[in-house]
Amino acid sequence: MMDKKTEIRNIMLSNIIFCFAIAVCTYQGVVRSYNSTMLALSYRYGFTSRSLLGSIYHLLNDILPINMMDYSVVLVFAVIVTACFYALLFYFMYFALKRCQEEYFKPLVFILFLLNVVTVATFTSSYNFFRVDLFMMAVAIISAIVMIKDKAVWMMLPISCIGVMFHQGFVFMYFNIALVLLICRFFDGDKKAKIKYGVVFALTFAICSGLFLWFELFSRTNGAAIINDVLADARAVSLDGHYHSTLLQHEVLGVDLAEDEWEWHKMNIMQMGFFVVLSLPWIWIAIDFFKGIFKGVNSRADKIKYFFVAAGALTMLPDYLLKIDYGRWVMSTIAYYAIVIVSLVAMGDLFICKRLLETYEKYKSKSWSLLLFVYPIMFIPFNDVDIDGFMQQLSAWLNGIVGFFSF
Q: pLDDT digits over 155-164, tens only?
């Protein structure tokens, strides 16, 4: 029988090899205009939304002896950054496995492996390669590691603020991971710990919410004065100079694009309906998992704690109702449940551990259990307005036959 260290090493090696194969298959060697144009936004023009990544890039351009305001350099930079993100993702897996008791290895490996496969495929594919979502998810993973270690918890405030500075959508998409883990620590702690986690939660929530409101309502005040400079940078860092004009209209000039998105919303509604139907096996298992939790806990505090765990993804609801990038929303929803459950196992939440093992044992004996592993691969990589390639083709086919998209 292998010792724990050897088993973790073999698991990690298998995971890395498989994910590398996925990355090779999905990588297309291009940073699309939306993602490259984001580098043109910078704090040199004021404390404006989505400008942290561009500010970092401009800073590197100032201190490094190469001209980074060139698309060929952007592509190399994107590859390096993405590789670093995957290293963080794999470290999270290694770190969680080291903290996990061996009896819970199999279900934990299953969740981690699916998280890695979905994440690698999504952020290597052309739609989301070097997208700012990668940085938001990196911030969420770092915050999860901080919460698992339970040291320097005050770091949750600056870490979360960095997430909002990358993109204010972090508040809805990935901030829930930090908040829910803080809530779990609060309910598990003694009186002194409750004060600590309560204060960190309140400050983090309040300041990040304030940042969100600033970026959404007050940061776009000098767009007309800076637009020409931003356009020049956008042309320099984009393939053949083809920047993403819609992004700059919204972020620099403050143009409201909601009125132009209704056709996309109709497509989202149709695709999401089919996606939910096709995802019913996994949805059923998730419901069964949480149903068992609420049946098994007795204390009021535990019921409240696990309610927040189960409902944490509802922070995504405004995006689902008001925005159109459903591929991104689905990705962040899956990431929420995977990262939070893995984190709770690594934090030693025995009830989550036991319930996870019970669910794994219950469904692995089914004749169709292998399909649970293969089935999600059909949907990856997640894209943007289209959830994924499968939904895109299905909706186009059905729309051509019965005109679903014309309602």
A: 999 999 999 9
